[in-house]
Amino acid sequence: MQRILTGDLKKHIGKTVTVQGWLHKKRLLGGLTFINVRDRAGLVQVVVKDKTEVEKLRGLQIGTVLTITGRVKEEKRASGGVELHDPKLTVDVPVTDEPPIEIDKPLSHKSDNLDTLFDYRAIGLRNLQEAKIFKIRSELARYLREFLQKNEFVEINTPKLCSGAAEGGAEVFKLDYFGQEATLAQSPQLYKQMMVGVFERVFEIAPAFRAELSATTRHVSEVTMLDLEMGFIDGHEDVLDMVQDMVFDATKRAYDELSDELKSLNAPQLKLKPKFPRYSMHQIHELYSKETGNDTTKELDLIPDEEKWICEYAKDHDGCEAVFAIGLPKEKMKFYHMDNEDGTARSADLLFRGVEISTVPQREHRYEKLLAQMKAAGVDPDSQGFAAYVSAFKFGLPAHGGCGFGIDRFTEKIIGLANIKEAILFPRDINRLAP
Amino acid sequence: MQRILTGDLKKHIGKTVTVQGWLHKKRLLGGLTFINVRDRAGLVQVVVKDKTEVEKLRGLQIGTVLTITGRVKEEKRASGGVELHDPKLTVDVPVTDEPPIEIDKPLSHKSDNLDTLFDYRAIGLRNLQEAKIFKIRSELARYLREFLQKNEFVEINTPKLCSGAAEGGAEVFKLDYFGQEATLAQSPQLYKQMMVGVFERVFEIAPAFRAELSATTRHVSEVTMLDLEMGFIDGHEDVLDMVQDMVFDATKRAYDELSDELKSLNAPQLKLKPKFPRYSMHQIHELYSKETGNDTTKELDLIPDEEKWICEYAKDHDGCEAVFAIGLPKEKMKFYHMDNEDGTARSADLLFRGVEISTVPQREHRYEKLLAQMKAAGVDPDSQGFAAYVSAFKFGLPAHGGCGFGIDRFTEKIIGLANIKEAILFPRDINRLAP
């Protein structure tokens, strides 16, 4: 028996073929039984007339695994343009209970309680719309990875079990590691910088862990991060250009290659230029204050409403809904960022559709300056967690920069979801550690 | 200034170009100074005659970051077939201390103490041979991923913070998760099986955590695993075929596309057939006992010497150094494996160059049977960690199987390294949590 996927049935019109999949929907209509069968390619409608065959389906519920041999008939009104007629059914795995969550409705979660959705995630993802989110996510990661490989970035795997908190801060998970304290990596920051000294250009796509105490639509305790780092830059602009080109390439490919999927999920129309506009924080404060009458010129950082506003502004004014906010305040600076010595850090936020999707700094690569910045930040360069890191600078690191880039957040924003957790298969937050 | 990579200098013979890189070696010879400069593409030799330029290098050590403008001269005896002459040097980042570990020797670690190697990992990896290990590793992961994507596997990201130990067992790291106990995922086993119900075919490449109490060349507490799972299989053979084809494809590509790198690392000659031989455990015991006089026919599992022996046997006898050992003993079975009901589990070990690189079972997909096997194994199907898992079966999972496949181990065996840790950037074991 050769299995034919539902997506390929059109090539077999008039022939008798075998499909395998899950019972996805069952309707009785005028003495006939119509079933939808789902496989990894989509759905096909099967018209069951024969009484013996109808009888096989009695009492069986959504999720039942079926093997069906039937004749492919063209049917323009049906999903995929074909139906299966005169089927012979084999019940491979019977399901006799009703599923705890509806899976044959479009995007049921929009109205449902998210907690219910996540409680029954393993079943709810069988909804075709839900599954599409993660097919898109898988493709986005592929586009990003292919862009970086084309640009000679080496993919690395850095440890998630560490001896200290790389970025300091309280939001770190701790665990017992054979009698000593270990932390879970909040990012591969230190490791990717060290690897600039080996490969010049590196990236990693991996989980990162943050003990986020907030319960919001934006906070999760485990994220999937794309981290990249590149050396021998001429200046900060080189890093901004690389991240811009990566985001442009992946977004463009998504809207070109996944347009049907994005449309069916009601993803926003795309407005993007190959060169993202760049506004300084100062400019954004000025523009926003003038436009809204809400004076933000004394604010250190962008306020959330400004992040939204500047994206809308750039969309209208520059025809591009991705925008860099440059000249971030020195106060926001981490010890490994480069200080512009003018009250700003050599860092930029990449904003897309109203939120920051990445921070893109140049790093301080001069050994003595780095040591001074670490000490000023209360980080001990001689401690076990930092000794190797500072040695990489002592023995020569070129000018470099990079970014952390959330795959979850990017997926959320590309599709236009309301909550980052909808872009994560099994989200984790302060209230959720299962399934 | 346009930077030219050392690997591209051959295209610029007779021209004056600019390269950037690290001082990798410095020699004085007959009044001339020869330096090797390293960038991400390799090395170039620079001949420094001019006294002002020679003076700039005084006191500078390996690792110094340089920008060099010079004339490209063909020189067949030099690495890359060219040299740079009449250079103008700019010292971008001076290094004045000698590095703690030699980096200009081939594969220094073979004779060095591994602990020293790992203590100075950030610097030691600048050795070109060391770096090659990880370029090969990066490519191996790309080949594996591309094979799976071509075969319609969806890449997923499953949580590493879990509420229970998926596979039971003692070797699990525990941590405090906002007041409740969490475990670090030993594998994505439960999640990938649930996702068969959504995507049919899934894979993930991600860290996995094992609190290994042993300190050997094979034990590390953090590994990078490729996990795959596929549904709607006709039988166990389908899974074996897929894993076989994946390993064949990735290995073949490595030996075709990375032959120079593999040769320079003294990787073993490859002997591989597209169809890996399959021997039952029983056959292996018989063959081994007959050949060696060491009677293993009463052994439950393969003994380590048999794993080595059968790989050698298959290499000579079948012309293939990868081999499946099928019909594993039921005693080795996990609760989610399928029982053959004849004293064996429907599982196979994939052996390559003397060691197991993957276990490839069919899973028990029948709800009632699975529940019984869980209970027999002392696993509570109703506990928080397993409720969603069993629900995926209750609501219909087709016959499926998959494997876990260590990227570290595969890299080690492809190159022919002596220790799995040499294939890991920053290895973790019972004695090592840094750098």
Can you lay out the helices and strands and say which pair or pack?
2 copies of one chain form a homodimer.
Chain A: E1 16-29, E2 32-39, E3 42-48, H1 51-56, E4 65-74, E5 82-93, H2 114-119, H3 121-124, H4 128-150, E6 154-155, E7 161-162, E8 174-177, E9 180-184, H5 189-199, E10 201-209, E11 222-231, H6 236-257, H7 259-264, E12 278-280, H8 281-292, H9 304-318, E13 322-329, E14 344-352, E15 355-359, H10 367-376, H11 387-394, E16 400-406, H12 407-415
Parallel strand pairs in A: 3-5, 6-10, 12-13
Antiparallel strand pairs in A: 1-2, 1-4, 2-3, 4-5, 7-9, 8-9, 10-11, 11-16, 13-14, 14-15, 15-16
Helix pairs in contact in A: 4-6, 4-12, 5-11
Computed CA radius of gyration of chain A, to the nearest angstrom: 26 Å
CATH architecture of the largest domain in chain A: 2-Layer Sandwich
Query: Quaternary arrangement of the chains shown?
Result: homodimer
Shape by Cα distribution of chain A:
elongated
Mean pLDDT of chain A: 94
Backbone structural class of chain A:
alpha+beta
Number of strands of chain A: 16
The number of helical segments of chain A is 12
N-to-C terminal Cα separation of chain A, in Å? 36 Å
pLDDT under 50 segments of chain A (min length 5)?
none
Q: Would you list the SSEs of chain A in sequence order as H and E?
A: EEEHEEHHHEEEEHEEHHEHHEEEHHEH
Quote the beta fraction of chain A. Answer: 25-35%
| CATH evolutionary superfamily of the largest domain in chain A | Bira Bifunctional Protein, Domain 2
| Helical content of chain A (DSSP H or I, runs of 4+) | 25-40%
Number of domains of chain A: 2
Tell me the strand order in the biggest sheet of chain A.
6-10-11-16-15-14-13-12
Largest interface: A-B, 95 and 95 residues
CATH class of the largest domain in chain A: Alpha Beta
